Amino acid sequence: MTPNPQNPGKPSSGNPATQQTIKQQRAAQREAKVAAFKKEQERKKRNKRLGIGAAVVGGVAVAGVLTFAIVASIPRYATYTAGGGDATIDGVETYTETNNHTTDPVSYDVTPPAGGDHNPVWLNCGIYTEPQVNENAVHSLEHGAVWVTYDPSISDEELETLRSLMPSTYAILSPYEGMDTPIAVSAWGAQLKVDSADDARIPEFFENYWRSDSVPEPGAACVGGVTGEGKA
Hints:
Blueprint: H1 16-73, E1 93-94, E2 126-127, H2 134-142, E3 146-150, H3 156-164, E4 171-175, E5 183-187, E6 190-194, H4 201-209
Parallel strand pairs: 2-4, 3-4
Antiparallel strand pairs: 1-6, 3-5, 5-6
Organism: Mycetocola reblochoni
Pfam families: DUF3105
Protein name: DUF3105 domain-containing protein
């Protein structure tokens, strides 16, 4: 018998069982890569959800801080009941005043003035950091406002106390040069002078003279007039 010649350049097909094992290994590797890819994708999704959750929580926290800051920044005003303007308070001086309108400067007998002839335009009520024109402020008193004036040299603590005593409307707070007392509280025809912002008679004065119905023009506006320099 003549033997079959072998082709030295052709590789052997190998054992079929070995070829199957190689295919299984490759399939397993592909499955492992797919599983790893899916695991990585799940990790990214989980981190994204955690990031969104943290952002939401952080956003809520920031919103809470901002809300607190906004609420804290809102001015807190004192509240009073409109008085009749006829109570007796120790130290209050009362006056009978004329109430003519004039565009000329007025020479007042009381400093600061507590009534009298005044400018046709009233001063808008509020807190001012600069001195105000007498004639405009007196017109506001005619409408029932209370005017709190203070010597510019009082301490920041005293000024803050005065601010805390102010209602949201029908009140004016401003510095005033040349007073003979650190603080004066004036309404139409009535005035109280005190040495300290902690004097208990200040809120008592408000309770009795603020928006009094005994002024010449009770209930008239305290806005819509002229705004002075330095309105806070």
